[in-house]
Amino acid sequence: MGQKKFKITTMVILISFVLSILTLTSYYIFAQKHEDSSLNDIAEIEDVEDEKESIEENLTDNENIIDEIESEEEAADDISRDEEAISGIEENVKNDENKKDNKNEANTKKTEEKDKAVEHNNSTDSIDSNKENKEQERLLNETLNRYVLDMIKTYPIGTPYLLNTDYANYNGVTTNLYYKDTLLLRANPKGDRASHCVGITFEVFFKAMQERNRAVGLSADDLNGMNWDQLYDFVLTWYVASSNKSTHNLTVALEKYGVGRRINNLEDARAGDFIDFSRENHTGHTVVFLNWIKDNEKIVGLRYWSSQKSTNGINYREEYFNILNEDGKKYGNIIIDQVYIGRVSSINSYKTY
Question: Does pTM surpass 0.85?
Answer without folding.
Answer: no
